[in-house]
Specification:
Two copies of one chain form a homodimer. With 375 residues, the first copy, chain A, is α/β, with parallel strands linked by helices. Chain A is built from eleven helices and 17 strands.
């Protein structure tokens, strides 16, 4: 087996963890292999705060032999060099005199300098960045590099790119199988839904997670609500204010614009933000605020205005397009995205197709914005 | 093996022919199997005017045994019962006393009553219509049932359903690999391109078939040109009037609306048609006229007006959507389809997804209009 094969095995190990349980940490897998190509130890990062993948793999290897000098450690991410919730893995590697470390992706965190420290200590380092390994930690990379949650747009449209007819009807464009995937996979794996007060009021949305034969599961919701519309007493009966135990509603509100008396509903928190003269949300600093609240991954459930705004402001990382086998054709039906800006074809946003799936007649196209998360 | 497996084998045989060489006939495959499940003969319809699939299969079987009474003939289409270019296959089946015939699709042609005649003659008939077999002859079925060519719309759009930016630029939305497929597969398999004078003038299109390292191949072109704009002398130098030997340009023109003198260019023919007060082409009788000229399959290369018109008038059978990984977002960019009609979601055109392909980052979604070609 070659380096890439072992890294792929480490990648499969890494994927055994639940991304949501590991966040804000990345998924990491590690394997210790001896010179006879026998795998001595394996491990993956299972839980935020728990041991790193390297620790599991090295401890398992030590049960088979105390001399690791002629072994290779394959690890999907550059080993940490700083004291976080656990001691640095670099020290462990050096302490056990592991001969070689093959690394599948670089940690963008500037306080991590694992490669440098290992090299200085005489450990042979082979850096072999693999796109699937980098893609696996797109959320972590975005959090680190862009100082904001990873943002996934979710759009359900007709073949001709329409999200509702001219009367505003959009239920249900996509089929049951697509909607099941949205709940069981997409909503399940996100930290919060991002939407607008308008959507929550008009659609009477709960934005929770529904699975067949199971009680609905709570999900954090972030709602752009400039003037605190949802705080009005007549809106307190909206389905979004269902009884919460584990989740929160975050209102992105300009508190100076609230002109009515209100009592903050339980499990609801206001994040005080500003809007520009066109009533567009100012994003500066918001990313950090959300991450401090444990929100590292966001999915939108909203109309074309919010999704277009996020794309325009470089706040979109992935797009899930569910295309139903329908044509609306009607000029006045609503397009999935729109802005007043002139965009010529040569200036069009260029995305990267990363996945396709078919749900009966619906097609899911998953795109990443930009060529690579670590470009 | 069961009936379906043999029909599937016959289906694979049928597909060995080139649809274009067989037209206006359907693709047909046939197999003769004896009671020990030995295949005695196989055949497929190779060429319009040539022997039918049943003839090849039965002749091959007769070389192995003269007694076909305990054999089963598997044939993908109901055997013909009329004297066309060849004698009726039903007679051949009865003459050789074939015991059983298993049929994979019914011939919609009212002069074909193969099933009835076979049954009356004491041949056991098993009718087992299979969707893939019916789909294979969608063109033939449409020709027979709708008395017009089969019409394939071809659309290249961004993810948000735009076919050009607000300046009209549409070259090139899709990538080289998609365009190669359009030439080598789609244009190669159609009898004619349908477009408009406007497209031919603005895009300076040749609409021929280009394959790498090969000379361009001619292709019939049907151009909607109400007032005979292309007949003006200043338009005679357009690329569409390239020197033709094997193909023709058909102008769909209202000859009473031509207000200028003209000489008909070589390989150009006017089909005299009428338009309504909104300048929309009247389709009555046009289908038969085109089929008389040997055009049984048409692909559009045109803008949103023509494609929307065809859909609106039930003259669209399939749609090939090439979706490039681009977003235009701009409100004023051009949508793939549009009409002034109010279409509510419950009245949206419902299509059937029949194929998906990926060409690098482009996605091809192929849809059929309506649930089934023979519904």
């Amino acid at each position: 087996m070659n380096h890439q094969s072992y890294l792929n095995k480490a990648f499969i190990l890494a994927k055994m963890a639940s991304p949501k349980q590991v966040r804000p940490n990345p998924l990491v897998g590690a394997i210790v292999v001896d010179k006879n190509e026998e795998i001595l130890g394996e491990g993956y990062h299972q839980l935020c705060g728990g041991p790193h993948a390297e620790v599991f793999a090295i401890q398992a290897a030590l049960k088979k032999t105390t001399d690791l000098s002629e072994t290779t450690l394959y690890v999907t991410l550059e080993p940490c060099s700083h004291h976080g919730k656990t001691p640095p893995c670099v020290e462990l590697i050096i302490q056990h005199k592991i001969g070689r470390v093959v690394i599948g992706s670089v940690d963008p965190n500037p306080i991590v300098s694992g490669i440098e420290l290992l090299t200085k200590s005489g450990v042979e380092v082979v850096l072999m960045p693999l796109p699937i390994i980098e893609q696996m930690n797109a959320v972590f990379m975005t959090n680190q590099l862009k100082k904001r949650p990873f943002i996934q747009l979710k759009i359900a449209s007709t073949i001709d790119g329409k999200i509702s007819d001219q009367l505003g009807a959009s239920k249900w464009i996509t089929n049951q199988k697509s909607r099941t995937f949205v709940h069981e996979v997409l909503r399940e794996n996100t930290d919060a839904i991002l939407t607008t007060a308008k959507t929550v009021i008009i659609d009477r949305a709960t934005l929770d997670i529904r699975k067949e034969n199971q009680p609905a599961k709570e999900l954090n919701t972030i709602i752009i609500d400039r003037t605190g519309e949802l705080l009005k007493s007549e809106n307190q009966q909206l389905p979004i204010f269902y009884k919460r135990k584990l989740s929160k509603i975050y209102l992105l509100t300009d508190t100076s614009q609230i002109s009515h008396q209100y009592t903050l509903p339980s499990h609801t928190e206001i994040i005080d933000v500003r809007f520009d003269h066109q009533h567009m949300l100012q994003l500066d600093g918001l990313g950090e605020k959300l991450m401090e609240k444990g929100i590292h991954h966001i999915m939108t459930e909203a109309g074309s205005v919010l999704n277009s705004f996020l794309i325009d402001n470089n706040w979109a990382d992935e797009m899930y397009c569910f295309i139903a086998p329908l044509l609306l054709i009607d000029d006045k039906s609503k397009s999935m995205l729109h802005t007043q800006k002139v965009v010529t074809l040569d200036k069009a946003h260029k995305l990267t197709l990363i996945e396709t799936q078919i749900f009966d007649g619906d097609v899911l196209l998953r795109y990443s914005f930009g060529a690579s998360v670590v470009s």
